[in-house]
Amino acid sequence: MSTSGESVLRTQVAIVGAGPSGLLLSQLLASQGVDSIVLEKESPEHVQGRIRAGLLEWTTVELVQEAGIGARMMREGLVHNGFDVAFADSGHRIDLKGLSGRSVLVYGQNELQKDLIEARSAVPGAVLWQVGDVALHGIDTRAPRLTYVHERHRYELNCDFVAGCDGFHGVCRAAIPREKLTQYERVYPFGWLGLLADVPPLHHELLYAYHGRGFALCSMRSRGRSRYYVQCPLEDKVDEWPDGRFWEELEARLPERYARQLVSGPSLEKSIVPLRSFVTEPMQFGRLHLVGDAAHIVPPTGAKGLNLAAADVRVLARGLVEFYRAGSPTLLEEYSARALKRVWKATRFSWWFTTLLHRFSADPFAERLQLAELEYLAGSAAAARSLAENYVGLSFD
Ligand code: FAS
Ligand code: PHB
């Protein structure tokens, strides 16, 4: 018991946040004998119920397998070797496998969360749920510590390192002195209205549609469950979009050959997300390392958010294991520089793909440029290869 009446715990790595970043890091560290405790403000049901990303790069698939929790993912995930881009009432396939040698896996983030929560829940005390008032102390010393409230009792958690896996609205990035950070941001003048329904997907692969009425994306979670998105004004509210309006708008944005395959049905979930590009530099301060959405946000057009989080985890986990195994701090000291190389390339790609496919202000010149680039993409193997290798995920340096 500390002098202030708090119960004192100790671990090697304190992880704030039990989203995909926090739980994947915890699972990977455990597989290498490094001890961690995850502090999460929500319940496991809440975290598992969030409908978010749907597509994994193969390096993410390999990392999940390395963490020893890939069995259901490989059984139930859908391997995709390409996707279609639709514009000017026609569709063009981007042959990911043929152009980049790689596939992607369709497997919902909430399914991955389910697998991660199941694995970490098997270890008593590995994750503390519904934790409040998490605060970071001494992150610029060799003895950082966290204080928090759990089940109405105050605790102090002493550790060697803190992993800030607490997302865009978390407390970890805010614990770094503002003058130590440079933050880059671009907010897009529209949002995505997403709908989940137990209806068969309209196509066997994903379809990204450019249209004068706005962008649309036809994705899926399985052969019986579809995930659709339409670009919408930022000020729109979900209750302004009854299911019937959504289905009509989606159909209006698709070429006829796809629209006639569309099967509608009652929504299981419907939500609007704003789109932004955001990068924090550096991604570390003292013994605190920022991971995933705590450090960067990309518009979901390029399906990079979850995959970038996994890439950060890959770099940080290797640095922590090297520190504890070999006593070498080198990889940890290089974490931010290494992670940011991939973050900025994915940020550029996500910005490019978003700018190409979405309707901005009514600007005829900009629309002609978009159509010219889409025509170029449809007719140039070099252009399609560039898109493909960014979409499947660039190789690690
Ligand atoms: P997360 O935000 O997932 O997890 C952070 C965790 O920290 C949360 O569980 C939160 O409760 C917890 N936390 C926050 N503050 C805390 C505190 N003070 N104390 C303790 N815990 C705290 N990406 C795609 O690739 N494709 C998509 O289609 C897509 N759709 C998205 C839709 C939405 C609505 C959002 C918000 C994001 C979407 N993303 C998408 C991006 C998303 O998948 C993220 O990249 C991914 O969740 C990142 O994972 P984490 O870094 O773990 O952050
Ligand atoms: C999804 O299935 O949620 C999804 C897929 C691809 C994207 C964005 C979202 O680019």
Question: What report would you give on this structure?
Answer:
Helices cover 36% and strands 28% of the residues. The protein has 13 helices and 21 strands. The strands form four sheets. It has an eight-stranded mixed sheet with strand order 7-6-15-16-17-14-18-21, sandwiched between helices. A six-stranded mixed sheet has the order 9-3-2-13-20-19, with helices on one face. A four-stranded mixed sheet has the order 1-12-11-10, with no helix packed on it. A hairpin with a 2-residue loop joins strand 11 (145-150) and strand 12 (153-158). Helix 1 (20-31) crosses helix 6 (109-121), helix 9 runs antiparallel to helix 11 (335-357) and helix 12 (364-379) crosses helix 13 (381-391). The chain starts with 6 loop residues before the first strand and ends in a 6-residue tail after the last helix. The mean pLDDT is 97. The chain binds arabino-flavin-adenine dinucleotide and P-hydroxybenzoic acid. Arabino-flavin-adenine dinucleotide binds next to helix 1 and helix 9.
